[in-house]
Amino acid sequence: MRGEAVPLPKKAMELLTESMFYLLMALGRGPMCGIDAAAWIERHTGGCLRIGPATLYTILAKFEKEKYIREVEVEGRKRTYRITQKGLDAYAAELERLERCVRDARQAEGKEDVP
Questions:
Q1: Residues 7, 93: Cα–Cα separation, whole Å
Q2: 3-class DSSP assignment, residue 109
Q3: Quick one: which of 87, 91, 37 has its CA closest to 67?
Q4: Distance between CA atoms of 70 and 56, rounded to whole angstroms?
């Protein structure tokens, strides 16, 4: 809504980093292992975002702890994850927040008339 302040996150996972956001986006396409999700992100962003192994596995561990994802298959060292409803909700909330930021920026630049 116009003129409303965007509340600051109260918990660590309320505001997703770019890597977290794209990882949830990737896993929203269906179950994937971490490496496949990282490859999808790199392809989807035209190489603008590359998630290295340390960042990838740190985020996956946080997501699993917060119940944003769950492990659905293990083949040797390969673990496949599926996004949960809580993860979908977090993705949708972050998408809405980002869209609001873009609307506010466009309105401030006079490029969009927002009711």
A1: 12
A2: coil
A3: 87
A4: 15
Q: How far is CA 9 from CA 15, 36, 97, in A?
A: 6, 30, 11
Domains of the chain: 18-103 (1.10.10.10)
The answer to whether the beta carbons of residues 57 and 78 sit under 8 Å apart is: no
Packing angle, helices 34-44 and 18-27, rounded to 10:
110
Amino acid at 51: I
Q: What is the pLDDT of residue 12?
A: 54
Q: Tell whether the model's pLDDT for residue 8 goes beyond 80.
A: no
Mean of pLDDT values over 63-72: 98
The model's pTM: 0.82
Higher per-residue confidence, 10 vs 54? 54
